[in-house]
Each structure stands twice: as C-alpha cells, then as structure tokens.
C-alpha cells in the first residue's frame, strides 16, 4: 500500500502531465472585486505608466533644496503649497520652500522633504531644526514600477494585494482561467437528499454538501450530479454523464470491499486507468484515483470524515492544477506543539480530528500553537471534526508521540 505522500505526488504528477490549459474568461474587477478574488490570472498585468507617476512625498512637511540646508537651523521663505492631486505650479529657488502634503508631487527645484514636526513657522518663513539629506522622505518616479513592467504575472492566484495592483495600473477587467467543473456523485441506497423525509435507517446525504464546499475552497465549480444507487448499471450511466459534462469526477462511497460497493468495478468497466485504489491512511484507506476518458476520477470512501480528509489530500491539488495553477501548494500542514501523548496502532498514517489553540505564554513572544485531539467515534463522526479546526497527522513511521513534541497538523480550510 502506498503512503499518502506518494499517492498525492502521483496525483500531482498525472495532472501536471495531462491537464490541458483551461479556457479563459474576462471578469469585471471594478464592478465586483469579490468574483475575481481567489481566481488565477490568465494574462500578464503590466504597469500603464511609471509608479509612482511623479516624485511622491511620503510625509507632511516642506519641500526644500537639500543644498540650502546642509546645516541645522536654516530659515527658508515659504512660497506655496503642493497637495495630493494639486501640484505647485512653480520652481523652488535658493532659500525657498513649499508646503507639501503626503501623496503630493515634489515641486521642481526641490530634492528633499522635511517633516513638519522638525520645523518651526515664523510668519512667511520656515526654520528647519536639522540638516537635510538629498532624497529624503519622497519616492522617486518609477521606483516602484516602470511603464510596461509586468507587475502581476500570468498564473498568479489573485488575493487582495494583486487586485489592488491591477486596480492601480488601471485594469478594469481581468482575464482569468475558468474554474474547473467538478461533478460530485454520492453513492448509497441509504442516502436521502436534504429536504426529503428521512426514514429510520436512512442517512442524509451530507457528503454532497461537504464536497461542494471543499471543491469551492479548492477553486473548482461544484456540479451536483445527484446520488447513485448501489447498482452497477445505473452508477455507470451516471458516471458517464458526469464525464461528458465536467472536468473531473468525484464519487463518494462504494469503494470498500462490501457486497454493494460497485464504484471500482464500474470504473474498470469504463476503461479507467487506475493509479491507486488503497492508501496507507486512516481514515480513507480505500481511496481510488484514476483517469477515464481524458479526465481525473476520484472514488472517495463514503464515511464523512474519510471523504473530507481524502479530498484535502488528493482531490484539492488536482483541482488546483485544473484551475491553471502549475504549482499546487505543498501538503497544507503546519506545526503545533502536542498537548498530550499519542499512541496509535497499525501500519498506516492517522488523521485525527483535533483543535489548535494559541497559547500566550510570554506576552513579549509570539503565541505558541498547541494541538489537542478530540474524542471521536471514528470516521462517521462529523461532530468531532466540527469541535476542532484541523487534523493531527500521525505518520506510520512514528505512531507514538510525546506531549510537547512539534507535530504536523492539516488545517481545515476556511477555519484559519
Ligand atoms: P461506504 O463508503 O459506501 O461503505 O459508506 C461508509 C459509511 O458512510 C456508511 O455508514 C454510509 O452510510 C456513510 N455514507 C456514505 N455516503 C454518504 C454520504 N453521501 N453522506 C453521508 N454519509 C454517507
Ligand atoms: Mg455505500
């Protein structure tokens, strides 16, 4: 059985080799920035002019000629004002200065800004307390970006700073990759859709909801393809429909060895090239990853916590690559200090519902992340996950961990 690291690397390798370039779409940035947030840029964004476009003051004070003020205590005549948006229309001559405000253009003739706090005004004159260094307290035109320079490259995921940059250089609309459509099929005769009446031995279909949320968080467009019964012919028809319409297919349930588990059999009938059908993790062992009719297909175990964990590990990187990202994020782990010892059994890695909190031991130092696991009844127990905010990763090579050790946790997307 392969490790989760090897399985994940396989997904990334296959998707990188086989995923085509997504189609693009153009979205309005000015009208609705939120729709562009998190998308991946399909074009280079270049500066439309120099930034800053003029020598820009970064202080409130006085624009001076540094040569006039090599010594402290110099007295200069105040001849005008430059403020943001309204430049001083003249030249600063010897022994003269101009009042300047943050964001204003530096007047011709001046080459330094003196902070207001370091001056004294005497009628039409300004006295400088200190000597002045040429170039102080302003940013040279073009120092941040030159006209034509690429300021956000194609392939970048757009967060708030990239959107601000696009706005600064005047891109009212942005060309981004289309989000991959990810079909979600839940299998199981016991499943009942949300809103329908549920019988005593029936189970509400929660996986289709968590999967839709996880697809969205990973950058995909969830396509609900409904539930499929535990019956080969209907399941097959449903997978074929999903393959026709979506860029990837994610199934939940029906991948174990039970009498009514048909997913793998049907995938084989459809000619799927299967890369793995078992991973050394708990929960999530019978996870299937294959390639069918030019598209990635995942069969995730149906227990809700198994579905969540295996999605994060194996499906999320595939969606990122299908979204146009050529560098899927590394396994999204961070380190926390273990609150109590751990003793797990078996030959697999464990992902345990857990909670990280930040312990403020010493006020002058950054708070320390401390992780504790939560009591749970196994992979059907959504409640244990709800109480936490992450999964503690216990690797097969070290199933015993001591209190106080630094351990890996996989954060739950959307909780941090
Ligand atoms: P399976 O992987 O089909 O053997 O299902 C394992 C367990 O997960 C069973 O208890 C199922 O009832 C439950 N389960 C399967 N699919 C879903 C689903 N879509 N929503 C909630 N629970 C599910
Ligand atoms: Mg089932």
Unreliable stretches covering 5 or more consecutive residues: none
Q: Measured on Cα atoms, how large is the radius of gyration?
A: 30 Å
Q: What would you call the shape?
A: elongated
Write out the distinct hetero groups bound to the structure.
adenosine monophosphate, magnesium ion
Beta content: 25-35%
Helix/strand class: alpha/beta
Distance between the termini: 32 Å
How would you sum up the major sheet?
6 strands, mixed
Q: Enumerate how many helices there are, as a single number.
A: 8
Give average pLDDT, whole number: 96
Total beta-strand segments: 28
> Largest sheet, order of strands side by side?
7-4-6-5-9-8
Please, could you describe this protein's structure?
The protein is α/β, with parallel strands linked by helices. It is built from eight helices and 28 strands. Strands 7-4-6-5-9-8 form a six-stranded mixed β-sheet, with no helix packed on it. Strands 16-13-17-21-20-18 form a six-stranded mixed β-sheet, with helices on both faces. Helix 5 packs across helix 6. It is elongated. The model has no long low-confidence stretch (mean pLDDT 96). The structure holds adenosine monophosphate (AMP) and magnesium ion (MG). Magnesium ion (MG) is lined by residues 187-188, 230, 253-254, 302.
How would the blueprint of this fold be written?
Elements: H1 4-18, E1 24-28, H2 33-36, E2 45-46, E3 56-57, E4 61-64, E5 75-82, E6 96-100, E7 112-115, E8 119-122, E9 125-128, E10 138-139, E11 150-152, H3 160-168, E12 173-177, E13 181-187, E14 191-192, E15 203-204, H4 207-217, E16 221-228, H5 232-245, E17 248-252, H6 263-269, E18 273-276, E19 281-282, E20 288-292, E21 295-300, H7 304-322, E22 334-338, E23 342-343, E24 349-359, E25 368-373, H8 382-387, E26 390-394, E27 400-401, E28 406-411
Adenosine monophosphate (AMP) binds next to helix 4.
